[in-house]
Automatic annotation (TrEMBL):
This is (2Fe-2S)-binding protein. Keywords: 2Fe-2S, Iron, Iron-sulfur, Metal-binding, Oxidoreductase. SUPFAM superfamilies: 2Fe-2S ferredoxin-like, CO dehydrogenase ISP C-domain like. Residues 4-80 form the 2Fe-2S ferredoxin-type domain. One of its GO terms (molecular function) is metal ion binding. InterPro entries: 2Fe-2S-bd, 2Fe-2S-bd_dom_sf, 2Fe-2S_ferredoxin-like_sf, 2Fe-2S_ferredoxin-type, 2Fe2S_fd_BS, Beta-grasp_dom_sf, Diverse_Oxidoreductases. It comes from the Bacteria.
Amino acid sequence: MSRIHVTTTINGEETDFLCEPQQTLLDVLRDDLDMTGSKEGCGSGDCGACSVILDGRLVCSCLVLAPEAEGRSVETIEGMAEGDKLHPLQQKFLEMAALQCGVCTPGILVAAKNLLERNPDPTEEEVRYWLAGNLCRCTGYDKIIRAVMETAADLRGAA
């Protein structure tokens, strides 16, 4: 089977790669592009550990075929920090201990970032709804929800 040439933008940088037609975006990110932040938790789109933003829309990269990224914009957990400066969500997760083993954390952070870009003043119910597709087996979610809510408040105060 012939490989497909894909040109896409990943975290603001134009990127080219070759992939098999059946390869997932997650597999290409992790195995070919060495972007191992997104995790494979389930491989069926149920856990959210592989969440990325594709053209502004939150998706599970295990459900997106890599060739579908052609000409599109992909944002991963690796693109959240700016140089050595953590994204405010990342900083707040650290400050509030809103993570444990770290498998789900990248997907949750990407999902939370996407939410705050769409809605800078979410209610707790909206945060819980938006993050419902991200499963965490280690925490009780409360610290995660509080960290997202506090980040939203901090970002609004800084604007």
